[in-house]
Model the fold of this input.
Amino acid sequence: MMREILPNLYVRTSHIQKLQSVVFRAGDALYVVDPCYFPDEIAEIRELARNFEGDVAEKFVILTHSDFDHIAGVPDFADYPVLAASTWDPMNEQGAIDQIERFDSEMYVDRGWLGKMPRVPIAHACQHGEQRGALTFYHAKGHTADGLVTIFEHTAIVGDYLSGVEFPFVYTSYRDYLQTLSMFREVFLAHGIEHVISQHGPTALTASEIRHRLDTSEDYLHRAVSLVERGITRGLSLDEILAEILDDAGDFSYETKPIPLGIRRFHTNNVRRIYEEGV
Done:
C-alpha cells in the first residue's frame, strides 16, 4: 500500500526486492519515480497519482536508471513525460526490456501489452547539476552508467545506491561508484539532506543512518578491492580468486553478516568487475 512518509511524499514497496516507487508533489508539479513492478502495484500508484492530477499543472515520471525493475511501469503512465539522465543507456534499456519479458513469461505476469515492452519515450534528458522547477538532478555512475539522483527540498532519491538491504551492486565501474559516494557527501551537505530514499529497502530518515549507509558502502568496496589486490599479489588468476570467494563465502560480511546466498553472485560479479577494471 502507498504510505505517506513525508508531507506530500508517498512510497509504495513492491513485493519484488523491496523496490520503492515514489509519488510526490513539488510546487505545481507531480512526480512519479520508478513506478513498478507488478500490475496491481502499478495500478495502486496510478490511482494515487490520479487523485493529485487535478491540483497540478504538470506531471512527470522520473527514472532513476534503466534496469528492468525500475522501468516496467512506464507504459501505464503514457500521459506523463519521462525524465531520465542524459547518460541514459539504450543498450541496458534493451536488455531490461528483454528481462521484463523473460520474468513476466516465467512468472505468468499479465500486462497491458504482449511480448516486449515498448522502448522508454524519454521527453527530457537531465544534465548533471540541472535545476528544473523545485528539483535538482545529479548523475550517479557505478551501479549503472545512467543513474539519476533527484533532490527535492531536504530529500534525496538516489536509485539503487545507499540501500538498507543490499551492498553495492557494481555493474559498470567500482571507481565510478566510489566517486558517486564522494559526490553524495558533497551534495547532501550542500542541500542539507535529511532523508535519503533508496529504491531498494527502507528510507534513511536520520543523519546518522545516512552516514552509516555511506560508510558501509565505501567500506564494502574498499574491502573488495583489497581482496582482489591480495589475490593478485599472491599470483592468483581471476578464476582462482573467484574460487576462493566461493569456498570462503561466509568470511566476507556486510553489515556484520555473511552475504546471503541469493545475492552472493552480485558479490562475485563485483570482484570480477574490480579485477577486470584494475586495482
